[in-house]
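Appendix B, example 12.
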Amino acid sequence: MSRGFSADDVAAQTGRRFLVTGANAGIGFEVSRILAARGAHVVLACRDGDKAEAAMNRIRADVPGAELSFQPLDLADLDQVRDAAKAIVAGPRIDVLVNNAGVMIPPRTLTKQGFELQFGVNHLGTFAFTGLVHGHVDDRIVVTGSIAHKSGTMDYSDLSASRGYHNWGRYQMSKLANLLFMFELDRRLSAAGRATQAIGCHPGVALTELQRHLPLPLRALTPLASPFFNSAAQGAWPTLQAATGAHVQGGDYLGPQGLGEVTGRSGPARATRMARDLKLARELWMRSIELTGVDPGL
């Protein structure tokens, strides 16, 4: 039986180019750091240039000579998503796109185009950016899900959350959308005869900046809970396996192997029947095209 995948299992990536969204902190930072240490060129796609620069300095302190570059990307603004995608497509080809950026249970907030922030960033921004750059990606497209998808349901009736806002429910919906998108993307890439594959992953329960919107009493308890959850570095293992694992195939879904998929080394994870539903995935694909104005052409 496999012992599972960790950062130690990431092979040399010299000559390969990775684009990691949300790369300045948490899991995205750890993924970028390990990839750079293995010789990859890593494009850090982030909202904040100062934070990206600070992250690159931290990586270079750990990995002298690291090959890094910065691409501005704000998934909460579809106009900015288009600008970022145009810049990427005009540059060198990408071997692996790692869709890592996301938001978790914020107060009710809207994207620039008026969508509830979690669905707007976690799914619609990811859909649009991937849809615009997938032809420039040669090997893999990684989409980050969550255990939370198991309680998610798709509801398109109030995408601005104007009639009511439940932060966990919206997060669960966005994470279900991520997996529906990943499975449908892989099917469409395969049907189009593309060698590029889509792969899903989730970090288990990792203590990262995503928890910044937890209520203060829960945030205060986080240090006490840390022995029972993944660190950001451990939470990065499924993403690293999805991005680099030698035996990973399109449509795979990876996550921690511990009890409840909360912690541990990475390996096969369980997606719900709803996340694999073909009809739901096709409906989400078409609605995402309508909502974003981006047709991936697949």
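The chain has nine helices and eight strands. The radius of gyration is 18 Å.
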